[in-house]
Automatic annotation (TrEMBL):
Name of the protein: GNAT family N-acetyltransferase
Membership in a protein family: Belongs to the acetyltransferase family. RimJ subfamily.
Keywords for this protein: Acyltransferase, Transferase
An example molecular function term from Gene Ontology annotations: protein-N-terminal-alanine acetyltransferase activity
GO cellular component, one term: cytoplasm
Signal sequence range: none
Entry annotated with the keyword Methyltransferase: no
Occurrences of domain N-acetyltransferase (ranges): 6-170
Length: 176
């Protein structure tokens, strides 16, 4: 999938180096619970697993062909009423925040989900304190639906995750 500033491609084992760099920064764990790999070998294994998922994509910059983020579509369940729904998860390297790049990646993957996969709903779960992602989802047409309180095993406080829903008719971007 190709956008103006970025393109999406499937992961390869060599992307493990970037995954390992992200795993060493707590901001990605705090914002998105990104996996904290113990070493480069584990991160390369993680990249290999991501490569096996048909709807997991590395976000790459046209400027330098570097992996600057990731975006995935997850199945929500196998029951009949969930078959045409999915959940999107995403992460962008902090050096690229607030440049419109994740908006472009999200548009590409949502168009893919609706047009190619036949999805009727795309869900997104975002921690309540992740203001940038919440703002982005709103700009895209996602609507707040509910909140779940998760016990946070990493701190004495609960983590609140807000769930947002996008349907084809709510998109605030052009669907080709």
């Amino acid at each position: 999938m190709i956008g103006k500033k970025i393109y999406l491609r499937h992961f390869v084992k060599e992307d493990g180096e970037q995954l390992f760099l992200w795993s060493k920064k707590t901001v990605y764990f705090e914002k998105a619970r990104f996996t904290q790999y113990k070493d480069l070998s584990a991160a390369k294994h993680g990249a290999t697993l991501l490569a096996q998922r048909k709807n997991s994509f590395a976000i790459c910059s046209h400027d330098n062909d570097k992996v600057i983020g990731m975006i995935e579509l997850y199945e929500r369940g196998a029951s009949e009423n969930l078959l045409n729904t999915c959940e999107v998860g995403f992460l962008l390297d902090e050096k690229y925040w607030h440049q419109g790049l994740m908006k472009e990646a999200l548009q590409l993957v949502c168009q893919y989900a609706f047009n190619d996969l036949g999805m009727k709903e795309i869900w997104a779960g975002v921690f309540q304190d992740n203001d940038a992602s919440i703002h982005l989802l709103g700009k895209m047409g996602f609507e707040y639906i509910y909140q779940v309180k998760y016990p946070d095993i990493f701190s004495p406080e609960n983590k609140n995750e807000n769930y947002y829903l996008l349907r084809p008719g709510n998109c605030k971007f052009v669907r080709s």
